[in-house]
Specification:
The chain contains eight helices and seven strands. By secondary structure, it is an alpha/beta fold. The chain folds into two domains: 50 residues, Orthogonal Bundle (Helicase, Ruva Protein, domain 3), CATH 1.10.8; 128 residues, Dna Topoisomerase Vi A Subunit, Chain: A, domain 2 (3-Layer(aba) Sandwich), CATH 3.40.1360.10. Strand 3, helix 5 and strand 4 form a beta-alpha-beta unit. Helix 1 crosses helix 2 and helix 5 packs across helix 8. It binds zinc ion. Zinc ion binds next to helix 4.
Protein backbone atom coordinates (compact mmCIF):
# COMPACT_ATOMS: atom_id res chain seq x y z
CA UNK A 1 0.00 0.00 0.00
CA UNK A 2 1.21 3.47 -0.84
CA UNK A 3 0.97 6.34 1.63
CA UNK A 4 -1.31 9.24 0.78
CA UNK A 5 0.65 11.82 -1.18
CA UNK A 6 0.70 14.46 1.55
CA UNK A 7 2.07 11.99 4.11
CA UNK A 8 4.61 10.71 1.63
CA UNK A 9 5.78 14.29 1.12
CA UNK A 10 6.14 14.78 4.87
CA UNK A 11 8.19 11.59 5.24
CA UNK A 12 10.47 12.70 2.40
CA UNK A 13 10.83 16.07 4.15
CA UNK A 14 11.96 14.56 7.45
CA UNK A 15 14.36 12.19 5.67
CA UNK A 16 16.35 15.20 4.41
CA UNK A 17 17.79 15.78 7.92
CA UNK A 18 21.26 14.38 8.60
CA UNK A 19 21.11 11.21 10.67
CA UNK A 20 17.41 10.60 9.94
CA UNK A 21 16.89 7.40 7.96
CA UNK A 22 13.66 6.38 6.13
CA UNK A 23 12.28 4.50 9.18
CA UNK A 24 12.81 7.41 11.55
CA UNK A 25 11.37 9.83 8.99
CA UNK A 26 8.31 7.64 8.76
CA UNK A 27 7.97 7.54 12.57
CA UNK A 28 8.27 11.33 12.87
CA UNK A 29 5.73 11.90 10.13
CA UNK A 30 3.28 9.45 11.69
CA UNK A 31 3.77 10.96 15.10
CA UNK A 32 3.11 14.42 13.70
CA UNK A 33 -0.20 13.52 12.09
CA UNK A 34 -1.58 10.96 14.54
CA UNK A 35 -0.21 11.80 18.00
CA UNK A 36 0.58 15.47 17.98
CA UNK A 37 -2.04 18.03 18.91
CA UNK A 38 -3.20 19.61 15.64
CA UNK A 39 -2.53 23.15 16.89
CA UNK A 40 0.99 22.19 17.99
CA UNK A 41 1.74 20.60 14.65
CA UNK A 42 0.57 23.70 12.81
CA UNK A 43 2.61 25.94 15.17
CA UNK A 44 5.64 23.84 14.32
CA UNK A 45 4.97 24.26 10.63
CA UNK A 46 4.63 28.06 11.11
CA UNK A 47 7.87 28.17 13.13
CA UNK A 48 9.69 26.33 10.35
CA UNK A 49 8.35 28.72 7.74
CA UNK A 50 9.16 31.82 9.84
CA UNK A 51 12.69 30.65 10.61
CA UNK A 52 13.44 29.79 6.99
CA UNK A 53 11.98 33.09 5.76
CA UNK A 54 13.36 35.43 8.42
CA UNK A 55 16.68 34.14 9.70
CA UNK A 56 19.62 35.66 7.87
CA UNK A 57 23.28 36.32 8.50
CA UNK A 58 24.30 39.58 10.17
CA UNK A 59 25.83 41.84 7.53
CA UNK A 60 28.77 42.61 9.80
CA UNK A 61 29.68 39.42 11.66
CA UNK A 62 27.78 36.59 9.97
CA UNK A 63 25.82 35.57 13.08
CA UNK A 64 22.26 34.35 12.46
CA UNK A 65 19.75 37.07 13.21
CA UNK A 66 16.19 38.23 12.48
CA UNK A 67 17.51 41.67 11.48
CA UNK A 68 20.12 42.99 9.07
CA UNK A 69 22.53 43.64 11.95
CA UNK A 70 22.63 41.31 14.97
CA UNK A 71 22.06 42.56 18.53
CA UNK A 72 25.74 42.07 19.44
CA UNK A 73 27.05 44.18 16.54
CA UNK A 74 24.35 46.78 17.24
CA UNK A 75 25.29 47.04 20.93
CA UNK A 76 27.33 49.96 22.30
CA UNK A 77 28.33 48.01 25.40
CA UNK A 78 30.79 45.67 23.71
CA UNK A 79 34.57 46.07 23.82
CA UNK A 80 36.73 46.26 20.72
CA UNK A 81 38.09 42.74 21.20
CA UNK A 82 37.04 40.37 18.42
CA UNK A 83 36.48 36.63 18.77
CA UNK A 84 36.60 34.53 15.62
CA UNK A 85 34.42 31.41 15.69
CA UNK A 86 33.34 28.76 13.21
CA UNK A 87 29.56 28.93 13.57
CA UNK A 88 26.66 30.82 15.11
CA UNK A 89 26.23 27.98 17.60
CA UNK A 90 29.69 28.79 18.99
CA UNK A 91 28.59 32.39 19.62
CA UNK A 92 25.57 31.10 21.55
CA UNK A 93 27.90 28.84 23.59
CA UNK A 94 30.23 31.75 24.51
CA UNK A 95 27.34 34.09 25.23
CA UNK A 96 25.94 31.47 27.63
CA UNK A 97 29.06 31.74 29.83
CA UNK A 98 28.85 35.52 29.63
CA UNK A 99 32.49 36.36 30.39
CA UNK A 100 33.44 37.61 26.93
CA UNK A 101 32.49 41.26 26.46
CA UNK A 102 33.79 41.84 22.94
CA UNK A 103 32.28 41.14 19.54
CA UNK A 104 32.32 38.07 17.32
CA UNK A 105 33.03 37.13 13.75
CA UNK A 106 31.50 33.95 12.34
CA UNK A 107 33.60 32.24 9.65
CA UNK A 108 30.86 29.89 8.52
CA UNK A 109 33.24 26.92 8.41
CA UNK A 110 36.91 26.03 8.57
CA UNK A 111 39.51 25.44 5.89
CA UNK A 112 39.31 21.82 4.82
CA UNK A 113 40.85 20.87 1.47
CA UNK A 114 39.41 17.34 1.82
CA UNK A 115 35.90 18.80 1.81
CA UNK A 116 36.75 21.37 -0.84
CA UNK A 117 36.62 24.33 1.57
CA UNK A 118 39.28 26.98 1.02
CA UNK A 119 39.80 30.45 2.55
CA UNK A 120 37.68 31.99 -0.23
CA UNK A 121 34.66 30.00 0.91
CA UNK A 122 34.76 31.54 4.39
CA UNK A 123 33.61 34.90 5.77
CA UNK A 124 37.19 36.26 5.70
CA UNK A 125 36.99 39.35 3.41
CA UNK A 126 34.44 40.94 5.80
CA UNK A 127 36.70 40.05 8.72
CA UNK A 128 39.65 41.94 7.23
CA UNK A 129 37.44 44.87 6.29
CA UNK A 130 36.02 45.28 9.79
CA UNK A 131 39.40 44.89 11.49
CA UNK A 132 40.48 47.97 9.53
CA UNK A 133 37.25 49.91 9.84
CA UNK A 134 36.63 49.16 13.53
CA UNK A 135 40.32 49.58 14.34
CA UNK A 136 40.49 46.19 16.06
CA UNK A 137 43.81 45.42 17.74
CA UNK A 138 43.07 42.18 19.61
CA UNK A 139 41.64 39.06 18.05
CA UNK A 140 40.92 35.77 19.80
CA UNK A 141 40.70 32.71 17.60
CA UNK A 142 38.20 30.34 19.22
CA UNK A 143 38.07 27.32 16.96
CA UNK A 144 37.64 23.67 17.87
CA UNK A 145 40.61 21.39 18.52
CA UNK A 146 41.00 19.48 15.26
CA UNK A 147 43.19 19.62 12.15
CA UNK A 148 41.00 21.80 9.88
CA UNK A 149 40.58 24.30 12.73
CA UNK A 150 44.34 24.26 13.33
CA UNK A 151 44.98 24.95 9.63
CA UNK A 152 42.46 27.78 9.71
CA UNK A 153 43.96 29.31 12.87
CA UNK A 154 47.46 29.33 11.34
CA UNK A 155 46.14 30.83 8.11
CA UNK A 156 44.33 33.59 10.01
CA UNK A 157 47.36 34.25 12.18
CA UNK A 158 49.53 34.80 9.12
CA UNK A 159 47.20 37.38 7.56
CA UNK A 160 46.25 39.11 10.81
CA UNK A 161 49.83 39.56 12.00
CA UNK A 162 50.61 41.35 8.78
CA UNK A 163 47.83 43.80 9.75
CA UNK A 164 49.48 44.57 13.07
CA UNK A 165 46.86 42.77 15.16
CA UNK A 166 47.54 40.80 18.36
CA UNK A 167 46.33 37.27 17.74
CA UNK A 168 45.33 35.07 20.69
CA UNK A 169 44.00 31.56 20.73
CA UNK A 170 41.88 29.88 23.37
CA UNK A 171 43.49 26.74 24.63
CA UNK A 172 43.80 25.65 28.18
CA UNK A 173 41.29 22.93 29.03
CA UNK A 174 40.18 22.44 25.44
CA UNK A 175 40.48 18.69 24.82
CA UNK A 176 41.93 17.52 21.50
CA UNK A 177 39.12 16.84 19.06
CA UNK A 178 36.71 18.96 21.10
CA UNK A 179 33.90 20.74 19.32
CA UNK A 180 33.20 24.12 20.90
CA UNK A 181 29.44 23.90 20.55
CA UNK A 182 29.34 20.68 22.61
CA UNK A 183 31.65 21.76 25.46
CA UNK A 184 30.30 22.36 28.93
CA UNK A 185 30.43 25.92 30.29
CA UNK A 186 33.30 25.29 32.73
CA UNK A 187 35.58 23.84 30.03
CA UNK A 188 34.69 26.69 27.72
CA UNK A 189 35.33 29.32 30.41
CA UNK A 190 38.72 27.78 31.18
CA UNK A 191 39.60 27.70 27.49
CA UNK A 192 38.82 31.41 27.26
CA UNK A 193 40.67 32.31 30.47
CA UNK A 194 43.69 30.37 29.23
CA UNK A 195 43.95 32.23 25.92
CA UNK A 196 47.53 32.49 24.69
CA UNK A 197 49.19 34.75 22.19
CA UNK A 198 49.88 32.82 18.98
ZN1 LIG B 1 26.66 40.83 13.97
Amino acid sequence: MKYPDSLDKLIKGFSKYPGIGPKTAERLAFYTITKMDKEEALDLSDALKDAVNNIKECKICGLITDNDICSICASNDRTNELMIVESSRDVIAFEAIGSFKGKYHVLGGVISPLNGVGPDDLNIPKLLKRIKEENIKDVIIALSANIPSETTALYLKSILEAMDVNVYRIGYGLPVGANIEYLDEITLSKALEGKKKM
